[in-house]
# Entry
Amino acid sequence: MDSVTHIVLGACIGELIAGKRLGKKAMLLGAIAQSIPDVDFVASFWMDTTSDLLAHRGFTHSILFTLLLSPLLGFVSKKWQRKTNLSLWNWTMFWGIQIFIHIFIDSFNAYGTGWLEPFSHQRFTFNTLFVADPLFIIWPLISAVVLLVLKRNNAKRRGWAVAGVACCSLYLVYCIYNKLHIDKVVSKAIENQHIRNNKWFTTPSPLNCMLWFVVIENDSGYHIGYHCVFDKKDKLELRYVLRNDPLLKPLEGNKELRDLKRFSRGYYTAEMWHDTLVFNDLCFEDMAGWQNPDAKFVFHYYLLPPGANDIVVQRGRFAGWGNGAVLALLQRIKGN
# Structure
């Protein structure tokens, strides 16, 4: 999830775990704890772009990292906060719960997390939450703001913290329900529309969990499109894109290409943009494809000749967005 979500959710959870004994300091420490796994961003200062893509949400988002760091931070906190009545176990659980919730929530995004690093490079992703979903963040955000205003001894503090965590948890359940519904529709449509496929996935479109991006792979490319939980018909409206593997043959064995294929989990295409060879990762949708059926993909990496790829994950996420794209998104969410 985005940094703000982790901060406000961590603040609410910190209040629940230790607010009575630490006061508002529990919120601050909770926000810090929830942000710790994202310390891997510093790797970008000395890693090349494709290595950084694989390092992000890697070891610092693993179960081993959680198990190693939690008791260490618990020990330091116990020594630092001698006057509190929190035991070493209490402090260890404080840090451990926060870090684990961070890596757990991140696994619901398309990027995926390396839970089993360094023993396995498998990425775990449930493709259920967009990385920044206003309806997920709004509840802990409101609660965190109220908790900052309320005095330490106010009896309503715990209720606000519970509300912030509970409401976003219920929204996550709603997202999972929508995911299961969409997957059922897609599975049935593949059978009814006789779509040959090797594998497929669905992932939420930007800022919501009602409109979903669908990718169905066959031997030479992908059927892609959007389907909404409010659509009245279960028939999928799809367009076809070729994988274009022959374009990548000159780079066979190239480290960048190897990293990109691994990062994309095998969902990729290649294409020429004028004289530039581009690698597209389909896991991150296309650019406002609900409005423009021929839209380019959000994640595009310039291979030959090499281009500026420093912000490859972010640069296409809201590219070309304007009032028209937003209105088209809202209209499409209403269903067909």
Summary: Residues 3-174 form one domain. The longest strand covers residues 276-286. The CA atoms of residues 287 and 318 lie 7 Å apart.
